[in-house]
Write a structure and sequence with these properties.
The protein has about 375 residues and is mainly α. It has twelve helices and no strands. It is globular.
Amino acid sequence: MWPLYAAGFTTAFGAHGIAASLGGFSEDAVTSLLILGGLLALYDGAEVLLKPVFGTLADRIGARPVLLGGLVAFAAASAVYAIADSPGWLWAARLGQGAAASAFSPSASALVARLNPAAKHGRAFGSYGFYKSIGYTLGPLLGGILVWAGGLRLLFTVMAVLAAAVAVWAALAVPVVPPLPKARQTVLDLARRLTSRTFLAPTAALAGATAALSVGVGFLPVSGRAAGLGTVATGAAVSLLALTAAVVQPTAGRALDEGRLTTRTGLTAGLLVTAAGLGCAMLPGLLGVLTGATLIGAGTGLITPLGFAALAAGTPQERLGQTMGSAELGRELGDAGGPLLVAAVATATTLTTGFAALALLLATGPLLALRRRPA
């Protein structure tokens, strides 16, 4: 399992560490906002398009080869810019990194499910999510230090070495998990499975959690600056959000495995806590920023392992890669849609109203479900 945790850390560190450093203060940093936006969208766009494809491939040939191939490709893409050091190759490197992450991220999730019995899925996905959250937390900090010390080329060099080391580790330690025989699947069968409640409910919860997490990381510092807080305070709030999410995930996973929590109750509570965090973010000053960050982190930390455990429980094992890839697509759409919604509402009204709009959207589903639930 440890190489899979390392793979989760790698994809998170690569996404946030480089994204937060592209517009830094080194000589090779990106100075145009248009180019910066294009480079950020290129990585996420590759993931949106390719994660379901590589998830399906993992079911066909086995998740381990796709995991190893993705890690090697990530190392190669990172090395491209580290060696070439030209703006054109930076675009190629980011596209290659996004495509490679699309391969090894859903494959790692599928292997987490295949290598653990169903009774331990909560704990396994909680631990996987913990190390992924650590990558999200440390990525901007470590990436900034590396860019300060040696520019973007040093950061890409470290990413290449990290991905290569994890690939070697996974090749030595992760056992071969052969693909399972499966019945022929038509397009109608696929559509029926991806529109069933067992897929849509946890995927929608994961998308909502990712949307709130992205909004918290992007907009809580804006609220802090409007209240007169400095960059240290707002940066600490974002770190608190990511750290809370990391700490809560293993605890939620253990509670699920031990029967102290069900996926339905946990996902409902997680969405309501996340919505409450967005509501607290509407409060002025440091109190609103810190309480909002804590509750958003706790809610997303509760949803993430339970959502993936529910997907694994409701999917035939021979289709795990396809399901995880499609669920990751839902998360990516939430990652992009949440900030777009808040930004659109905030532009027309205020940022406070933008937080309220997303909070209302996240709370609507659980509240309707609770209302329909018999006594």
